[in-house]
Amino acid sequence: MNDKRFDRETMAREDEAHIDALLREARANAPEPTAGFMARVMDDALEVQRGFALPRAERQSRAGVIETLRTLFGGWGAVGGLVTAGLAGLWIGFMGAQQVDTVASGYWQQSENLGTVNLLPEVETVAYVDEGGF
């Protein structure tokens, strides 16, 4: 049993040594790119970079007030949350705290209906009854 393990470890070390030797040889004999090739690569890179950057004046003229606020607050999700909170505050301020409490108490006091939840619409319930599903 130990001989097999020793042979595997020895083979693994020999393989690693062989790979290391190949990589050293490849590093030593690495071909240098020609000047013409490097010039073509740089021309291509500059052409691609020209497409990324827009002129500063054009960027400022496109961004309106809404777009600026959206980026300032961190996206449409954050703006939607702020609008919702603002409208809720406006409604509570306009209605008054007592009236909001009166409206909300209608939802909280109907606890007897919490135990009966109809998850299937009436049409699908009738379809299950006709097929003998119940």
Properties at a glance:
single chain, 134 residues, mainly alpha, 7 helices, Dihydroorotate dehydrogenase
What's this model, at a glance?
The protein is mainly alpha-helical and 134 residues long.
Question: Could you walk me through the main structural features you see in this protein, from its secondary elements to its overall organization?
Answer:
The chain is mainly alpha-helical and 134 residues long. The protein is 76% helix and 0% strand. It has helices spanning 2-28, 35-52, 56-62, 65-73, 76-95, 97-108, 122-130. The radius of gyration is 36 Å and the shape is elongated. The two termini are 65 Å apart.
List the helices and strands and how they pair.
Elements (H helix, E strand, L loop, with lengths): L1 H27 L6 H18 L3 H7 L2 H9 L2 H20 L1 H12 L13 H9 L4
